[in-house]
Structures are given as structure tokens and as C-alpha cells.
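User: quick one, sequence for these C-alpha cells?
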């Protein structure tokens, strides 16, 4: 199984840092940032979220979604969004090679972006809050994607290695 985590126009470096940590923990290939490359400067208040991630992470930047689509044609593009056509992330059978695509903290993924994706998944919710934080959503979907993997890192002491 191979997957990339794709972040479209996120606004918060803290969210990107938290998603990067989950991405690495679940064995993702590339963390892909779409939008203005200059705004993702992992310094200052984000250091607790991004400690050593810059060295470990394979980061790719694309100016727009179409440039990303031209780069990666072999993976299934899965939008994570609240949508009437979405499948529940907990019931969805994830393909072997996929891109998990998440959108802006305020607006989510634009309809034009969703239409260019192969599938849409949503996270079931039971309370009266409209949506989850994007970093929380990413972690939940990455868990669902990986929950049936057989290979697991060894635990030594209190850490996975």
C-alpha cells in the first residue's frame, strides 16, 4: 500500500504540522501542499508540531490542483469532504495506491476540486458540530486507510521504532 496526503490551500501551519506527523506515523509517501509555497514556513510557534518533520518528510509543492493531477496519474484521488455523494470513511475499501485530499479549514474542498477526484469519503459524526478540524479529519482517515495493514512497527520501551 502506498499513499500520499494532499493538502489543498490550508491556512494554518499548525494544522499542516499535525497532519505531517500523522502522515509520517502511518507511513505515507509524499506530503503534498497545493497553493502558495512561501506560506508553509515551519518555524516559530509550529516547532512543537513539526519537530524533525522537515528532515523526515518528503514534501512536494504544486501551485494548483491541475498541476498536481498531471504529476500523479497512477493513484486514486480520494477527497475527504462532507458531501451527499460521499461514502463513509469507516465503510470505504481504500485502494492500494491513493491520494488522500483535504481542503481549507474554512471552506473545505471546492466543488470543482471534488469533481476531479475519483472518490469522496466523509467521516461519520454523531454530535451537533458541523465538522471536525482538518488535522483531526486527516488522522481519522489515515487510520481508516491503514487499519487493516499487517506490518506494524516494533515497539521498544514506550515508542514505535
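Assistant:
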Amino acid at each position: 500500500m502506498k499513499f500520499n496526503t494532499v493538502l489543498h490551500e490550508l491556512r494554518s501551519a499548525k494544522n499542516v504540522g499535525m497532519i505531517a506527523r500523522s502522515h509520517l506515523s502511518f507511513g505515507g509517501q509524499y506530503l503534498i501542499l497545493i497553493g502558495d509555497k512561501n506560506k508553509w514556513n515551519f518555524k516559530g510557534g509550529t516547532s512543537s508540531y513539526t519537530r524533525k518533520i522537515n528532515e523526515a518528510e518528503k514534501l512536494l509543492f504544486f501551485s494548483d490542483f491541475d498541476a498536481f493531477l498531471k504529476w500523479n496519474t497512477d493513484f486514486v484521488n480520494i477527497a475527504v469532504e462532507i458531501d451527499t455523494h460521499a461514502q463513509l470513511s469507516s465503510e470505504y475499501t481504500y485502494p492500494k495506491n491513493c491520494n488522500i485530499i483535504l481542503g481549507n479549514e474554512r471552506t473545505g474542498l471546492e466543488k470543482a476540486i471534488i469533481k476531479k477526484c475519483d472518490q469522496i469519503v466523509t467521516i461519520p459524526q454523531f454530535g451537533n458540530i458541523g465538522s471536525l478540524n482538518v488535522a483531526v479529519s486527516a488522522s481519522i482517515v489515515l487510520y481508516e486507510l491503514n487499519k487493516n495493514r499487517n506490518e506494524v512497527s516494533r515497539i521498544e520501551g514506550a515508542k514505535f521504532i
